[in-house]
Design a protein that fits this description.
Keywords: Cell membrane, Disulfide bond, G-protein coupled receptor, Glycoprotein, Lipoprotein, Membrane, Palmitate, Receptor, Transducer, Transmembrane, Transmembrane helix
Subcellular location: Cell membrane
Helix content: over 70%
Radius of gyration: 32 Å
Domain G-protein coupled receptors family 1 profile: 73-363
CATH architecture: Up-down Bundle
Organism: Sparus aurata (Gilthead sea bream)
Shape: globular
Family: Belongs to the G-protein coupled receptor 1 family.
Number of helices: 13
Number of domains: 1
CATH topology: Rhopdopsin 7-helix transmembrane proteins
CATH class: Mainly Alpha
C-alpha cells in the first residue's frame, strides 16, 4: 500500500502557492492598468467623490444659483454706475472694478469649477487649459480682494482728509489706482508661466503650484497683506468716529433749532429790532451751521465705519479659512500633490467665491442711490431713471 497522506498534503500546498501567485499577479495587473489620477489621489490620501444622480442635481442647482446671482448682482453694479449720472463719480470707479473682478470670477471660473465638482473633483479640460484656468482664477480673485483693500483706504482718506485727498475728484488718478490693482494681481498669476513655480497638472488633476516660496508669496500678496490693511483702516475709521461722537454731543439739537426758528420768526413778524439782536442771531446761525456740519461729518464717519466693518467681517469669514488651508497645505502634504479631502477643499473654495456674490448687495444695503437704481433696473424702469433719483435726493434733503 502507498502512503497517500503525504501526497495529498503536497498537492494542497501547491494549490495554495498557486492561488497566492495568481492573486499577486492580479494585484500587479490592477496597479499597472489603474488610471494615473486614481494612483495620484490614493498616494496623497485624497479620494475622488462619487456622487449619485440626486446629489449631482442638488449640488449642480445650488452652485448654478450662486453663479447666476453673482452675475446678476455685479452686472447691476456696472450698469448702475454707467447709466446713472449721480453715481458716475470717480469714487465709484472702484466699485465698478470690484464688480468686474467678481463678474469675471462668475463667468470664467465658476462654470469650470462646477463641472469639476460634479465629477467628484476630476479635471476634464486638459493640461494646457489647466494653467490658463488657474491663472484666471488667481488673477480675478486677487483683483477682487485687492480692490476691497483699496476701497477701504479710499474710504479712510475720504473721511479723514476730505480737502487734501484728490483721488475722489480726479478720475485719472483713480483709474491709475485701479490699473495698479490689476497689475499687482497679474504679478501673482505670471510666475507659474515664467518657470518659477509649476502648477500640478497630471491626468485628472489641476492644482496651483505648491512650491513653498510661491505659496507664501501668493497668499501674502493676495490675502494677508490686504486683510491687514483693511483691519488697520477699519480701526482708524472706527476710532475717528468714536472721537467725533465724544467731542460733539448733539442732544436736543433739533428741539433747539425749532425754538430758535420760532423766536426769530416772531421777532421778524413783530418788527422788533432791539440793539444786539441781529448780531446775536447771526452768531447763533453760524453756530448752528457749524454744528450741522459736525453732525454731517459724524454721521458720515459712523456710516463709513459700519460699512467697512461689515465688508471686512464678510471678507474674513469667506476667505480666511481657504487661505489658511492653502498656506498650510504644501507644508503638510508636500509640493507634489494635495492630501486635503476634496469635500473640504471645495467647500472652502466656494465659501471664498461667495464673497463675490455678497459684495454688490453689501454696498447696495448701505447706499440708498445704488439701492434705488437696483430697484428700477429690476423693474425694467429705464426711462427717466436719472430724474427719479434726483427727485428722491431732493425729497430726502427736504425731509432732513
Amino acid at each position: 500500500m502507498y502512503n497517500t497522506s503525504g501526497i495529498e498534503l503536497t498537492l494542497n500546498k501547491k494549490e495554495d502557492i498557486s492561488e497566492v501567485i495568481n492573486g499577486t499577479v492580479q494585484l500587479l495587473h490592477n496597479a499597472l492598468t489603474a488610471s494615473p489620477t486614481t494612483m495620484w489621489n490614493e498616494s496623497c490620501g485624497e479620494q475622488l467623490q462619487d456622487f449619485g444622480r440626486p446629489e449631482k442635481i442638488i449640488i449642480g442647482v445650488m452652485l448654478a444659483i450662486i453663479t447666476a446671482v453673482t452675475v446678476m448682482g455685479n452686472t447691476l453694479v456696472v450698469i448702475a454706475v454707467c447709466v446713472v449720472k449721480k453715481l458716475r463719480q470717480p469714487s465709484n470707479y472702484l466699485l465698478v472694478s470690484l464688480a468686474v473682478a467678481d463678474l469675471s470670477v462668475a463667468i470664467v471660473v465658476m462654470p469650470f469649477v462646477i463641472v469639476t465638482d460634479l465629477t467628484g473633483g476630476k479635471w476634464l479640460f486638459g493640461d494646457t487649459f489647466c494653467n490658463i484656468f488657474i491663472g484666471m482664477d488667481v488673477m480675478c480673485c486677487t483683483a477682487s480682494i485687492m480692490t476691497l483693500c483699496v476701497i477701504s483706504v479710499d474710504r479712510y482718506l475720504g473721511i479723514t482728509r476730505p480737502l487734501t485727498y484728490p483721488a475722489r475728484q480726479n478720475g485719472q488718478l483713480m483709474a491709475k489706482m485701479i490699473l495698479g490693482v490689476w497689475l499687482a494681481s497679474a504679478s501673482i498669476t505670471l510666475p507659474p508661466f515664467c518657470g518659477w513655480a509649476k502648477n500640478v497638472h497630471t491626468a485628472g488633476v489641476c492644482l496651483i503650484s505648491q512650491d513653498f516660496g510661491y505659496t507664501i508669496y501668493s497668499t501674502a500678496v493676495a490675502f494677508y497683506i490686504p486683510m491687514l490693511v483693511m483691519l488697520v483702516m477699519y480701526y482708524k475709521i472706527f476710532r475717528a468716529a468714536r472721537k467725533s461722537g465724544a467731542k460733539h454731543r448733539f442732544t436736543d439739537l433739533s428741539r433747539r433749532e425749532r425754538l430758535e426758528t420760532v423766536a426769530n420768526e416772531a421777532l421778524r413778524m413783530q418788527g422788533l429790532k432791539p440793539p444786539g439782536v441781529a448780531e446775536d442771531c447771526a452768531a447763533l446761525s453760524r453756530l448752528l451751521n457749524r454744528e450741522r456740519r459736525n453732525i454731517s461729518i459724524f454721521k458720515r464717519e459712523q456710516k463709513a465705519a459700519t460699512t467697512l466693518g461689515v465688508i471686512v467681517g464678510v471678507f474674513a469669514v469667506c476667505w480666511l479659512p481657504f487661505f489658511i488651508l492653502s498656506t498650510a497645505r504644501p507644508f503638510i502634504c508636500g509640493v507634489e500633490c494635495s492630501c486635503v479631502p476634496i469635500w473640504l477643499e471645495r467647500t472652502l473654495l466656494w465659501l471664498g467665491y461667495a464673497n463675490s456674490l455678497m459684495n454688490p448687495f453689501i454696498y447696495a444695503f448701505f447706499n440708498r442711490d445704488l439701492r434705488s437704481t437696483y430697484r428700477d433696473l429690476l423693474r425694467c424702469r429705464y426711462r427717466n431713471i436719472n430724474r427719479r433719483l434726483s427727485a428722491v435726493g431732493v425729497h430726502e434733503a427736504l425731509k432732513v
